[in-house]
Amino acid sequence: MPELSHDFEHAAVKALGNQQLRTNFRRVMTGLMNKRAAQFPDPDELQALRSRGKSIKDRALAKLPDLLVQLEQNLIANGIQVHWAESVDEGNRIILDILRKANAKSLIKGKSMVSEEMHFNHFLEENNIRALESDLGEYIIQLAGEGPSHIVMPAIHKNKGEIGKLFQEKIDGQGYTDDPDELTAAARRVLRQMFANADAGFSGVNFAAADTGSLVLMSNEGNGRMSTHLPSMHIALMGIEKVIERLEDVGPLISLACRSATGQPITTYVNVISGPRKAGEKDGPKEVHLVILDNGRTRIYDDPQLREGLRCIRCAACMNHCPVYTRIGGHAYQYTYPGPIGEILNPQMQGIEKAGDVLHASSLCGRCAEVCPVKIPLVDLIVRLRRESIRPSADAVKGGGSRKSGMENVIWFGWKTMYANPLFYRWGTWWLRKIGNLMPAGLPLLKQWTSVRSKPQFASRSIYDLARERGIRDE
Amino acid sequence: MSNARSAILERLRKAPKKPVPDLAPWSPYKTTTEQPLDRFRRLMGAVKGEIIDTKRADLAETLRKVLADKQAKNLLYAPNTEIGRTIDAAWATEPGPQLVAYDKPMEELKSLMINDIDAGITSTMGAIADTGSLIVWPSAEEPRLMSLVPPIHIAVLEASKMYDSFSEAVGKLGWNKKPPGNTLLISGPSKTADIEGILCFGVHGPKQLVIILITD
Ligand code: SF4
């Protein structure tokens, strides 16, 4: 994967100038929003389902340590081996060890955002193990050497012509076509052989049911099943927040996730894995491993408000509906998770000093929180993290306070003083009326604002004076 | 046990406690005006699952027709199941497309399965009206790959085994007791919309899903 430059502003400006990219995103996001809306014709049903989803995840989070232990016990009883990793490095190393022990040289992957968090493919390649993505979108971006631009549709920034050229260039014997059916068939051909020959399969996890010791995976393509049924070993990876109490609770969560994500009642496959191949069975992996990753999640958990972000079921509705995301696409966000959920997760996982600039990729319009199927108050969390970036509360967030700026402090102090005191206010606005229009737009601080907006015109008389004149009193 | 495990659990245990909320009131989907089977047909149709009604006694004949229709030259089947025995008996009197028995470990059949099989037939545990999904529980007799690798998946569903919702199926089938190693919901043929959001079928799993519905 190419080294990314971690500068949100430049990336966003560049994305805004790319008309093709904006057209691709606009079209698909509009489609997804319409499909979601069509899935929820009854607002009461939607609200009841969202409340249920929220309460399922809140219960699981309230009991998280106990549920993780219960899950582990039941998985082990089912014959699944469980590993724990605190950091990305530890997670990578555990999986490498498992693969080395089995003498595995190649791995076929189902979709996993957590593995993107770990830069897992890159790590394996450095260690001479070939990791091939099998989700069509992930396969496309892997061929292109790019990262995902959306958590459900990773290659959605590319159009079919671009994909046609990519396939022609990278797949042996493949001519150019921009027909999606033919492109899909080409990927099927290549990947089928990989599924058959790979030494190990890999997947993420959508939900892990503690009561039965089951891993639940959703997929439309069937690659999730191929990766977990065909190779002789299956390694699954999940964040600690994926565990829920009961298999039964998967029903409402799937309904919320699928309807919110792509406007389907359900994905084509819901694959419930509760153990490896047993004696007498003819297929299925002989070994199943689960790696449970922390990577900053316990720190998020430690703060009662920020913990709400751990309810996320990765449906992507928040980004599909985000006016900022729809215009700049996912790559501008620089780190694994784009859109509103990324604005919350990336700064907390990477540290505000590194990834805090995405906190400003929001107009706080509130659409994300309105559509979030598990009622995460995304806007409140973004505002909270903005505050943490300036004035940290204890040790809540990595890199808290690192965005403090003397100049910004002075400006806010001045603003506050003026608005808190009628005398200052009148005096301040009087001056602005007199000299505001004379100030050149290119003044040092003003320039940053006026470079992309026209400078406001100051009225010669204040609304306060006008109101007075009409006989409106202060009270 | 590893350090990571105890460190993670310890941090979680030390974190501020929040009360465990009750589950918010919500009831799983229940059919009211539309019959469960009608809803199932509608939703399955919307995702290109084909449904063919038949009587139990006509299963083999219906299967023959489906295979002819789809021009399948062979069929992967499970010989030690009721469906398998029905097929064997019917093919003994009048041979049809070549039968391939899934009666040995996958390793011995893999290349054949990946490259040469046209269709596979499996039973189902029933279906869910809410989402239009088949419930499939692979077993030693009827292994996992039968419903996945062949380009055509033929699934036999008994109309009497309809459940309103996943929650109902979990309770009635004892899914949450000690489930088999792999259990599935299947709602249509394999599909993707990863290229420009345009729907394409058969990306990795079956391109076609044919449901033979036993109505008696
Ligand atoms: S924050 Fe909510 S809307 Fe966004 S991906 Fe997570 S669950 Fe979906």
TrEMBL record, chain A:
Keyword Repeat listed: yes
SUPFAM superfamilies per the UniProt record, alphabetical: alpha-helical ferredoxin, NagB/RpiA/CoA transferase-like
UniProt entry tagged with the keyword Iron-sulfur: yes
PROSITE patterns, per database record: 4FE4S_FER_1 (PS00198), 4FE4S_FER_2 (PS51379)
Annotated Pfam families: Fer4_8, LUD_dom, LutB_C
PANTHER family: LACTATE UTILIZATION PROTEIN B
A GO BP annotation: lactate metabolic process
NCBIfam families given in the database record: LutB/LldF family L-lactate oxidation iron-sulfur protein (TIGR00273)
Keywords assigned: 4Fe-4S, Electron transport, Iron, Iron-sulfur, Metal-binding, Repeat, Transport
UniProt protein name: Iron-sulfur cluster-binding protein
GO molecular function, one term: 4 iron, 4 sulfur cluster binding
Domain annotation 4Fe-4S ferredoxin-type: ranges: 302-331
Species whose genome carries this gene: Telmatospirillum siberiense
